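As a warm-up, study this chain.
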Amino acid sequence: MIKAIVLSVVSSAVLLSNSARSGDFDNYPALESVIAELSTQGLYNKEQLNDIFFEVERQQVTLDLMTRPAEKVALWKDYRARFLTPRNINNGVAFWQKYHEALEVAEQQFGVPQEIIVAILGVETRYGANKGRLKVIDSLTTLAFDFPRRSEYFTQELKNFLMLSKEQGLDPLQVRGSYAGAMGYGQFMPSSWRKLGIDFDGDNKADLINNPIDAIGSIGNYFKENGWQDAPVIALQANVSDTVNTEILSRDLTTNSTLGTLKSQGLQLATALADSTPASAFSLEGDNGTEYWLGFNNFYVITTYNRSIMYALAVFQLSQALKEAKKADEQST
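Now compare it with the structure written out below.
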């Protein structure tokens, strides 16, 4: 009788073990397809991939955050306040001073102003202080297979992440990042890291998680490859006349008008730029009511990093605050 009980317990344990080993995404045909595809590339075999995905956990927090990102639910005045803080500005100046040589080289090589690169790091991770706490493979797998609206995109990012892990010598079960699967100082998605991440300090490795110098160079490279131009103005705040035509306001993430046309429709600007300069006008709710802004080419290049006008404006305004604070600090010493 005792022997029978023992055998029953052992059998139950084996069944539970086998069931648990299936993981949260067992019997997902899409996952089976990913495993089959990756195993044919030679970086992993099926057993290795099955072992990895056995450890993966579905993250409801990832799905919740994906449906209500701050850029879509917050007002501009509240969103801006998250980044334009004395602490974030002071820490940004300190980061800038510490890595000024790498930032100077990046500006010379890619044409991207140093303050823009520093501001990206300040908005994304507070200069590396907050790179994300979720396992990247958990987030990407959850979004690939349980977020239908963007399943195709995140499936590709999941595959890129596994390839990147092998290429960079990373343990795919240990890398942590954002709820969307972005990683490191600059929060690069896996495909962007593989395509545009660069070794900027000469150690033969593009380490965007632990190496701020590689992150600096990679951000500069990212913007250059996405159309950054040598232009004096990124964005301008405008005043409006009583006869402003609000139909000129746009939410498109591109320049779809010209400076001259926007001025003729009631936007008042103090600028020497030619009327033929491509631009778009948009409005946001600030501390003192509606703000009217013009975005130029490089403003919309910033939105390729995060598809949001508020994001790009936060980066721009932080960059200007950093530039002013650094200048004041240098003048006082």
